Amino acid sequence: MQVEALDRDDRNTAHADLRFSLLDQTPRIPASHMFHIDSITGEVSLTEDGASTLDPEMCGRYKLSVMVQDMGGKANAFFSTGTVLVEVTGNTWASPDPVRLQENLPGPYPIPISQVKWSGSPVEYSLEGEFPEMLFTISREGVIYLNAPLDRETQDQFHISIVAERPDGREIAKPVELRVMVGDANDNRPTFPQMQYHTVVKELATKGTEILTVQAADNDDPKTDNVRIFYRLAGQVPENPRNLFRVDRDSGVITVQADSMEGTAPQYTLTITAEDAKGLNSSCTVIVKVLDENNNPPVFSQHEYGPFHLAEDALVGATVTAVAAWDADEWGGDSWVVDYRLESGNEEEVFTLVTDRQTNEVSLVLDKVLDFERENEYILVLSAQNPVALVRGRYGPASTSTVSIFIDDINEGPVLSQSHYEVTVREGEEPGRVIATIRGYDPDSHPIRYSLRGDTKKYFSIGKYSGELKTVQALDREENSTYTMEVVAEDGRNSSLSASALVTVHILDVNDNSPVLVGDYSWKYLCTPRWEDQALVLASRDSDGPQHGGRLNFSLRSDPIVRRNWKLTPINDTHTNLSLNIAYMSPDVYTVPFTISDSSSPPRSTFINLPVTVCTCNVRGNCRTAAKQLAGMPTIQSTLGILLGTLGVIGIILIVVFVRLSYQNPPPSGKANQERVPLKMSL
């Protein structure tokens, strides 16, 4: 409601600026301030008290005294008063009753579903809420329309706020709400969460054994019968005249229908259909694998195999025979696999078993060298069992078999007790000593003949039948410290059968060599006065081994003068320095007596008288004084005399020869042209 007033003054001035106020309310029940007037627009509305307590039955009419002033309501303004009568009637602006609509209504659209009405001044209506745009609309008359089919599975109810506003957009009252509930229509088929299932069932499962439960879901309203689902077995591949499986109509539980799954196919594919009351349906497949159980023991086709003949010299790894036990369980499964074992007759582990897991065939293979003289017949008990336990039945006589093997004797060659003999002999020992005895045996008890191979210098011999190895001559370690040869043992009845062994003879060293001085020292000299660090380096050698000749000792003769004049200083095991022990010695050739001894006990020694030249030296260390001739050494004069005497003797011999020739062949007279004949000459 709006109060209007008119002022004839210029509307663009304060003279026409009108202000409204409420002076009085009659009656003042149930509150004294039931109404309010807008000072600018003059619109009359309810106060909070009025809105909450206004009741037409308590008071059906109110008289309001209203004043209007110009000049914006200032003190000097003109004013006028008036009376406003307010009739109180029932309120028509209220939430409409909830509406229930069936989903997927056939139309035509739009379909009116409800209506609201504002009983006062003109208003404009609008709808707000969570729903697709234009799904619901409202007319100027307040009629609410549905413009498209509803889907309960998408949204099962709507809360629509209805707003009433004045033409200028101001809200006239609080919005009211329309609740729209969507009823279910059976428009969804039941579906399985997966299109294919896998499960297993044991071969010996009994009737009623649960295999799997399949559950389909229906998106229709769970509070209705539209979601009730019925299951059925629609197909089975491969087919079987027996009813092997069953699915519960209400629960979807799949169970074994047959008394047993024994003897059936290893796998079945079931088609399960889920259907609702309207007949809407969908299907899934269930792949059922029948698990084989070990209910059949392996059995041999024969109780005995053989006898087989095997040569005594058969090679290790040779196959004697191959057999197989048959198992009726599923081929390739754990229950079908057979483990074989030799229960008896193979205590020495002469044979072994090799199983082919693809065929379950077992091969009996030779695992050790045969010996006819030790064992010439084998009776083996072979058993067959599965690696997994039997669930029914037990292993009986058919799961064992006997294998007979005869060994054929072969003439075998001799065998030596060792493949390598090592012998030690002291050098210089008397020939003919037995240094080793070669031992051999013949499996067939034939005699054995021994011989040597590789002893090219014939230092050794061996007894033809005794095998005694002897030295033929004394051995010298310094000549050769090791001898290697081969001993051959032949079958006395068949020389093509033989065995051989390597013999190594080590010669033990004996201290039978004295150390010797090595090198030429005649051109060497020592300077006098003595030069520091000048010495003759003397070298020695001992042909014996290091045990005896390892370290050689030099020592001067125990003569005070010798030890005063000379000094020996060891360098290593075989060399020593000889130097002057005094500052000055007269230039001359001196004989230095010393001994070289080895390290054996007792030692062997060599006595040396070494001529040593001592001379004065220039600054470069060259000897300047000629050394004296040693006694017994030839001089230049004596050498020249010997040479001249030799030439004289040769000349005399030549003269005698020519003289004799001239007497034996005188030239013939008167025959100047006579032919010459060769001379004969003898001396």
From TrEMBL:
CDD domains linked to this entry: Cadherin_repeat
Any one Gene Ontology BP term: calcium-dependent cell-cell adhesion via plasma membrane cell adhesion molecules
Record keywords, A-Z: Calcium, Cell adhesion, Cell membrane, Glycoprotein, Membrane, Metal-binding, Repeat, Signal, Transmembrane, Transmembrane helix
Coiled-coil residue windows: none
Transmembrane segment boundaries: 640-661
Topology within the bilayer: Single-pass type I membrane protein
Pfam families linked to this entry: Cadherin
Residue ranges constituting the Cadherin domain according to the UniProt record: 1-98, 119-192, 193-300, 310-416, 417-517, 538-636
Location, primary (coarse class): membrane
Protein name: Cadherin domain-containing protein
Origin species: Pygocentrus nattereri (Red-bellied piranha)
